[in-house]
Amino acid sequence: MKFTVRDLVYIAIFGALWGAAEMTIGAYLHVVYPPLTYAFIPGLIMAAIGITIALVGRLFVPRAGSVLMMGLVVAMLKALSIGGVKLGPLIAIVAESLLAELGLALAGQPSRLGFVLAGSLAVLWCPFHKPLVGSILLGQTAYKMLLGMIGRAARLLGFDARHGIAVVALLLLIHIAAGGAAGWLAWDLGGAVRDRLAR
Question: What is the pTM of this model?
Answer without folding.
Answer: 0.85
